[in-house]
Amino acid sequence: MKTVYLDNNATTRVAPEVIEEMLPYFGEYYGNPSSMHSFGGQVGKRIRESREKAAALLGAHPDEILFTSCGTESDNTAIRSALTALPSKRHLVTSRVEHPAVRALGAQLATEGYRITEVPVDGEGRLDMEYYRRSLTPDTAIVSLMWANNETGVIFPVERAAEMARSKGILFHTDAVQAVGKIPIDMSRNSIDMLALSGHKLHAPKGIGILYVRRGTKFYPFMIGGHQEKGRRGGTENTPSIIALGKACELALVKLEEENTRVARLRDRLENEILARIPNSRVNGDRSNRLPNTTNISFEFVEGESILLMMNEHGICASSGSACTSGSLQPSHVLRAMGVPFTMAHGSIRFSLSVYTTDEEIDFVIEKLPPIIESLRSMSPYWKTATGSCTVDSYAS
Ligand code: PLP
Prior knowledge:
Layout: E1 4-5, H1 16-22, H2 24-27, H3 38-58, E2 65-68, H4 71-85, E3 91-95, H5 100-111, E4 115-119, H6 129-135, E5 140-146, H7 158-166, E6 171-175, E7 194-198, E8 209-213, H8 228-231, H9 239-277, E9 281-283, E10 294-299, H10 304-313, E11 316-317, E12 319-320, H11 333-337, H12 342-345, E13 348-352, H13 359-378, H14 381-387, H15 392-396
Parallel strand pairs: 1-11, 3-4, 3-5, 5-6, 6-7
Antiparallel strand pairs: 2-8, 7-8, 9-10, 10-13, 12-13
Helix pairs in contact: 1-9, 3-9, 4-5, 9-13, 10-13
This protein binds pyridoxal-5'-phosphate.
């Protein structure tokens, strides 16, 4: 069975060009980049090139690129570093819809005596800028706001938010894990101090990330050890993955505009057809300001997990916004923060496309999804009640 992979915000396929670039660094050029001999030195040269390629994608200077193990490490490092740099300040500002890489750290920091403000969003997932402005205080050390949301794709005005923070002497970090490679980012034209990205969302392997740290920003390492990364992160470099990420950044820069226009066209077609063919469905998130590859759609009166399971039988991979991972049966914190009604939030599905998504795959989903929803609804007492075909009581009996 063919797999139609529309779960690219979870992880992406490693690009064949990227695999080709990294493979020789396992078996052939396996030297340690810190070694004095030329066998290791040649690897060090390739790491420098990767740093330059990543810097080019971000409009940054290569010195501002720090290789890490993942987006989570980058987020944690940025926030912990800022709090260490400004020990007299005990306040962190973030949002209600951040990824756990930031949100769970916020919860941990609260237990360590820090004050955390989570800025709310409106029904479309847009940041409440007035609330944000009011939450910046003399005690605020750092703001951490995501550039784009992983569940809805909604883009936050992080450049404007960073300006506001800087005018008050507050450091600004952005989790750009979902944004990099999908929308243009130019760090030479904004006041963001730190930015996190992750290789596996960008067609590089898992286990590699970047923390951008603006020149002049006081920085305290998270991992202390050897002098690697100019003393900013101890540990022998993950050479093959660093080289892979450099290549992925190079490809993203070349393809960014053209490919993302194509991906957005496919996403819009998928979304419009679903809305037209399936009653009681709706898009969650600001449709006018989203990542080009993401759509989050709710199907009223159906369980997201059941939809995922039935799509899976046809080889279609997506994500549910109502994952009951905690067993609490609560919809995702993002949809709850947006105030999406319960009956809608429970049946939400995130489709996330990539540069590898084809027209045929979108046609396939458009054909398969309506009967799936119809058959699930035919079994749903809530749907029957809502459409008047029976009552919950009569179903229960
Ligand atoms: N931030 C966002 C917005 C994400 O979507 C993810 C991964 O899903 C992360 C951070 C964590 O990245 P990683 O898996 O590289 O730790």
